[in-house]
Design brief:
Strand order of the largest sheet: 1-2
Strand content: under 5%
Protein name: Solute carrier family 6 member 7
Helix content: 55-70%
Largest sheet: 2 strands, antiparallel
Shape: globular
Structural class: mainly alpha
Number of strands: 8
Transmembrane segments: 21-42, 141-167, 187-204, 216-237, 275-296, 317-343, 349-372, 393-418, 438-457
Organism: Naja naja (Indian cobra)
Pfam families: SNF (PF00209)
Subcellular location: Membrane
Radius of gyration: 25 Å
C-alpha cells in the first residue's frame, strides 16, 4: 500500500503503508465524532442566551448559591465552571454512565449529527482531490481569519495579559513522560506525519514540483500558526479567570475539555456571545473536515492502488459510501452515554507508540534500505534546477534522516513506554480499568505489527515458500522513478527499466508493476493548501495539551 515505485524499491516495507492505513482508519473512526460535536454546538449557539451560560434559565440554580451575609440576609455568589461542565456532560456523555463497561444508549441528536458529518465527508471526497482541493481553498483559509479576529478581540479584554503570561511561562517541574507523549502526538497530528494522507495527495502532484519549498513552508507555517493560535485561546481564558477571580490554571483545560467546556464558557462571557460561539465552532468544523479529507484520501488511494478495479466511478462510489457508513456504525459507540470514555481511550492510544514506530521504520527504510544518497538524488532529479539554497539544505536533511530523527523518535518512544508503565489513563476522576488500557495497547500494536508481518509475507513470496531465508539480508533497491536525461519531450518520465518514456497516465511500466506519476496533475498551490489543513489550528486544545504547565482535566469536565 505504498506508492508503486516505493514497492519496487523495498517490497518488504509494505507493512509501513499498511500500518499508516490502520492509523488513519482509527483516527477517522473517532475524529468525525468531534465534527458531530461541533455540529451540535453550532446549532445550540443560535440560541440566546447560550445554553451553557449563566443567563440560561436552567443554569441559574447552578450559577448562583445563597450564603449567609449576616442579619438574616443572604448574598448570591457565582459558582465557576458548573454551567459549561453540566452542558458538556449532556453533550459528551457521562451523565448516566459508570465507566467504560457501561456505554448506555445512543444519544439520538448526536447520532443525527454524526450521520450528517459523514455525509459531508462522503460528498466532498467522492470526486477525489479535484473536488476536495477546491473546498480546501475555503476551509484552510477561514480558520486563519477567525484566529486573527479572536486574537484582536482577546487583546481588548480585561485580564487577557494574565492569560498570555500563563501561556508563555513554563513550569519545568512538570516536564514529565506524559508531556513528551502528548507533544509527539500533537506534532504528528499537525504535520500529518505517518498517516499516509500527505503521501497520497503528493502522488497527484507534478513530477517536478519543488518538494523542499513545500516542506519548509509547511514546517515553518505549522510552528508559527501553533504559536499564534495560543494567543487567541489564552487571552480569552485570561479574561475568564479575571471575571471569576481565579488563577488562569483553574480555567485552562486540555483535550476536549478546552474546546468544548472552558473556551465556550469564556466566549459566553463576551458581549455578542452567540456570534463568537458560532464563529469558533464553525472554525473547528472546517479544521476537522480538512483533517478527515487527508485521512480519507490516504485510505481510498491506498486501497484503489491495491485493487485497481475499484477506480471506476460506480465502484468507487459504492466503496467510499460503504466505508463511510461502516465508520458511522462503529462511531455510534462513541456517542453513547459513556462514549466519551471510549473516545478518550482511542484518542490516547491510536496515535501513541504505534504511530511513532511506523514513522521510525519509514525513516529507517528511506535512510538505510533505499539509501539516503539515492533518495536525495531523486529529489534533485525531480526539482531539476536546484537553486543554491536548496543544495545547501541537502546535508541537513541527510543528517536528520540518518541521525537526528531516528534518535529523537527513539527518545520519545522511551518516554511513551515509561508513561504507559507508570500511569493509569483517566478521564476526570474516572480511572480506566486495566482491561481498557490493555485494549488501547492492542490498538497501538495493531498498527506497528503490520511492519514485520508484511515483511515476512513479502520475503516468503520472494523465496517461494522457503521460510529459512526470511531473516537473511534485506531487499536492496535497484529502481527509482526519475526523469529521463535529455528527453526531447518535456514532461515525460520514465520508471526504469522501461526502455522508452511513457506519458504520465498511470499506465503499467515494464515488468516491475510500477507506474509513472498519475493524473490528474494538481496545481502545487492547491496541494499546498490541502497540506496546510493539517496545521494544528484544528487542535486548539494543543496549547494546553502540550504546555509545560500540563494539568489533568478538572473534575467533572
Amino acid at each position: 500500500l505504498l506508492r508503486p515505485c516505493e514497492l519496487s524499491c523495498s517490497p518488504s516495507s509494505t507493512g509501513i503503508g499498511v500500518g499508516m492505513l490502520v492509523v488513519s482508519s482509527l483516527v477517522s473512526l473517532y475524529y468525525n465524532v468531534i465534527i458531530a460535536w461541533t455540529f451540535y454546538y453550532v446549532s445550540m449557539s443560535f440560541q440566546s442566551p447560550l445554553p451553557w451560560s449563566c443567563d440560561a434559565p436552567h443554569n441559574r440554580p447552578l450559577c448562583q448559591a445563597q450564603v449567609p451575609a449576616g442579619q438574616g440576609s443572604f448574598l448570591a455568589v457565582s459558582c465557576p465552571l458548573l454551567p459549561s461542565s453540566a452542558s458538556s456532560q449532556r453533550v459528551l456523555g457521562v451523565v448516566h454512565s459508570s465507566g467504560l463497561g457501561d456505554p448506555g444508549p445512543v444519544r439520538e441528536p448526536l447520532a443525527l449529527c454524526l450521520l450528517l458529518a459523514w455525509a459531508v465527508i462522503f460528498l466532498c471526497t467522492l470526486k477525489g482531490i479535484r473536488s476536495s482541493g477546491k473546498i480546501v481553498y475555503f476551509t484552510a483559509t477561514f480558520p486563519y481569519v477567525v484566529i486573527v479576529v479572536l486574537v484582536i478581540r482577546g487583546a481588548t479584554l480585561e485580564g487577557s495579559i494574565e492569560g498570555v503570561y500563563f501561556y508563555l511561562s513554563a513550569d519545568w517541574s512538570r516536564l514529565q513522560s506524559k508531556v513528551w507523549n502528548d507533544a509527539a502526538s500533537q506534532i504528528f497530528y499537525s504535520l500529518g506525519i505517518g498517516f499516509g494522507g500527505l503521501l497520497s495527495m503528493a502522488s497527484y502532484n507534478k513530477f517536478d514540483n519543488n518538494v523542499i519549498r513545500d516542506t519548509l513552508v509547511i514546517g515553518i507555517g505549522n510552528c508559527c500558526t501553533s504559536f499564534f493560535a495560543g494567543f487567541a485561546i489564552f487571552s480569552v481564558l485570561g479574561h475568564m479567570a479575571w471575571r471569576k477571580k481565579v488563577p488562569v490554571g483553574r480555567v485552562a483545560d486540555s483535550g476536549p475539555g478546552l474546546a468544548f467546556v472552558a473556551y465556550p464558557e469564556a466566549l459566553a462571557l463576551l458581549p455578542g456571545s452567540s456570534f463568537w460561539s458560532i464563529l469558533f465552532f464553525l472554525m473547528l468544523f472546517t479544521l476537522g473536515v480538512d483533517t478527515l479529507f487527508g485521512n480519507m484520501e490516504g485510505i481510498t488511494t491506498a486501497v484503489m492502488d491495491e485493487f485497481p478495479a475499484l477506480r471506476g466511478w460506480r465502484r468507487k462510489s459504492l466503496f467510499l459510501g460503504g466505508l463511510c457508513f461502516a465508520f458511522y456504525l462503529l462511531g455510534l459507540l462513541l456517542i453513547t452515554e459513556g462514549g466519551i470514555y471510549w473516545f478518550t481511550l482511542i484518542d490516547a492510544y491510536s496515535t501513541s507508540f504505534g504511530l511513532i514506530i511506523v514513522a521510525l521504520f519509514m525513516c529507517l527504510g528511506v535512510a538505510f534500505c533505499y539509501g539516503v544518497n539515492q533518495f536525495c538524488q531523486d529529489i534533485v532529479d525531480m526539482i531539476r534546477q536546484c537553486p543554491p539554497w536548496c543544495s545547501r539544505l541537502v546535508p541537513y536533511f541527510k543528517a536528520c534522516w540518518v541521525i537526528v530523527t531516528p534518535g529523537t523518535l527513539l527518545f520519545i518512544l522511551f518516554y511513551i513506554f515509561l508513561d504507559l508503565s507508570g500511569t493509569r489513563l483517566h478521564y476526570g476522576a474516572y480511572q480506566f480499568p486495566r482491561w481498557g488500557q490493555a485494549l488501547g495497547i492492542c490498538m497501538g500494536v495493531l498498527s506497528c505489527i503490520q511492519i514485520p508481518l508484511w515483511a515476512a509475507v513479502s520475503r516468503g513470496r520472494e523465496l517461494s515458500g522457503s521460510w529459512e531465508g526470511l531473516l537473511v539480508g534485506v531487499d536492496l533497491p535497484s529502481l527509482t522513478c526519475r526523469t529521463r536525461e535529455g528527453s526531447s519531450r518535456a514532461g515525460l518520465q520514465v520508471c526504469p527499466p522501461c526502455a522508452a518514456a511513457e506519458d504520465p497516465k498511470g499506465r503499467p511500466c515494464g515488468k516491475i508493476q510500477s507506474v509513472c506519476p498519475r493524473e490528474p496533475k494538481v496545481d502545487s498551490s492547491k496541494l499546498l493548501g490541502f497540506m496546510l489543513a493539517h496545521i494544528p489550528v484544528a487542535l486548539l486544545a494543543s496549547s494546553a495539551h502540550v504546555h509545560l504547565q500540563y494539568r489533568p482535566p478538572l473534575q467533572g469536565s
